[in-house]
Amino acid sequence: MAYSELIKNFNKVRDYMRDFYVYGFKSRDDYTKKSARSYDDEKRRIESWLGDYMEFHQTADGKNVFLSIDSRVTRHNPLYKAWKTKSFTDGDITLHFIIMDILSDGQELSLVDIAFQVDAYLAMFDHARVFDVSTIRKKLNEYVKEGLMVSRKSGKMMLYRRTEEFEMPDMDILDFFSETAPCGVIGSFLKDKTNDTADHFAFKHHYITGAMDSEVLCTILEAIHEKRNITVEMINRKKDRITETNVVPLRVMISVQSGRQYIMAYAQYFKRITAYRLDNIVTVKNGEIADRFDELKDKLNEMQQHMWGVATDSRSGNRMEHIEFTVQYDDGEQHIPRRLEREKRIGKVEHIDEHTSRFSADVYDASELIPWVRTFICRITDISISNEALETQFKDDIQAMYEMYGLKGGDDHAVS
Amino acid sequence: MLFHEIYGTYFQTVSRILTEAVEHPLTPGEINRIIQNYAFEESSLSITESLGAEHWQLLKDDGTTILKNKPTIPLTMLQKRWLNAISHDPRVRLFTDHPIVFPDVEPLFFPEDIYVFDKYSDGDPYEDAEYIRNFRLILDAIKHQYPIQISITNRRGKRVTTKTIPEYLEYSEKDDKFRLIGTGGKLGNTINLGRIISCEKCEDKQDTKLSKRNRPHPRTIIFELVDDRNALERVLMHFAHFEKQVEKIDDRKYQVTIHYDKEDETEILIRVLSFGPMIRVMKPTAFINLIKDRLSSQKSCGL
User: Fold this and answer.
1) Interface predicted TM-score (ipTM)
2) CA–CA separation, A60 vs B100, rounded Å?
3) The listed CATH number (3.40.1820, 2.30.30, 1.25.40, 3.40.30) that belongs to domain A210-306
4) 3-class SS at A188?
5) Considering the entire predicted model, what is its pTM?
6) Partner B contacted by A298 (CB < 8 A)
7) pLDDT, tens digit, for every residue of A115-127?
């Protein structure tokens, strides 16, 4: 099949874009184990959509392609472009514009009347296309489903009209929420309808990778809203294996410090609530109404009192792990106790004296806190974790860092 | 359906071509200009061919269209559901008292369906009337480029007043705060909206003498990453929002180059530390010394 900029299936390009953007170190050989042509086509497409951000790096293994995007400078998520590349047939686009034009003044017409007028429009061409009535009916029903049209039965006849036109929301609202709200790509679709190029916002700490999972997220949000079961196909990238699971999705959990998105869902098979990463979900299908949805959601609300991130079980096998650590600070470092207060998600902070504070919490998995605890390196006077192996690992890591930067042994305060 | 051609760049571009063609016959040059402005790098050939060869029977050879009206398209159900969902977000009130709501349409989600588990808890007060007033005034000043006078409480609790011409608002999801970036007076380029105690339009533009905007101070660090405990993925996801390059050194080692601004150095420092021994900073020496300082202080804490 000839190369086209447009694609039918999003999943293939989804993986390439993530690799180019997040990783960006793979050479052509790393990608072409399955199909060299597929790699070349996907790379060419992405370059066509996002050429301004595509960069190349020559290594001994060949040329590496990567997407280099500073999301603080780029005010509109460029990855949304990928969602605007769905392929279509000649008939799809021709019928779209003609039908929308026929019904543009709000009148209600039958299928036969619409088909008659479509023929009249196309008669302007020497070699006019002919659409059979069933093709036009299919297109009209598709648009009813998408909400562009409404249909109504009058006797034996189905009548169609366009849905009501509404004023567009303020461009600043679309500009802001298309970058910050879940499924922001929908806001980007809305912005495309206007000629306004409002550009009054920039975004710091802005993770844009979630854009690639917009369709998965959208389907899951619909299921949560309707309290439905879903069937998800999950990929294990390391084992390159796909498994199918039936779960009750309860809540979407988003990290604004890594850009990862998860669903907390109840898996009947395991009889527990657990987290599933959205970028590992290949497909989602909505199922039946979940009878226990409210009960399970209450359960999740309780569990969240002990969740630092998304883990709902410990690596040690204990139901709950206790962690506490103490930090010290000088007179001019009052931002430290403030940091503890604003950055703690659960647990409690005790201000022991003017220069000492202690954080403590009971959590499902204390290992989730370790990266945060490490941000206080230079002032941690004590740490205690009920998971002893984790405590040892934390202390060993600190020792490894001393060694790494030449601070092992000798003068404790030596800085070269 | 989210991945649908009605939202596609080709449909949008053809819509813009037809919008002009309804008014007057289009030359190939005019068609190309629209394609170059709105479509992708390689779209010119495919769209021109498809329109010209009458695959898409919408535009005639003479550059006129068979459409009678400028093409428009109603909002889809998905778009309405998303708009209803954001109408429940407290931040929408910063923009309007009356967000657009479609009463017969279910929102795509409610706020409680989503939980951001690692944003800081001292975010801006989006429901505070004074904050909303300040936000709207600043946004208006950005749009219409007029100077404003702002008073804030500084870190020492003192009131400080400055004039600025606002350029844009910067939002951090992690901090859950807005910052005003402008051509600053004595407070510099950046003012946290949450610190503002008063904000007024400067009526006398002549009286507004403003200093130039501080230049950015680009900085680079290079670190070596060892892929233990899934560090490769965790680190690259964590630093994904920066401009960066990654190079594979061997099966477990990678070299990562991150570009950042000097004003964020302390933040970068603690973010690097958060990965423990999985990251070893190689350059620059000044940054390595910052790490050594912290580790040295830590060592003196006796842990």
Assistant:
1) 0.95
2) 56
3) 2.30.30
4) helix
5) 0.95
6) no
7) 999 999 999 998 8
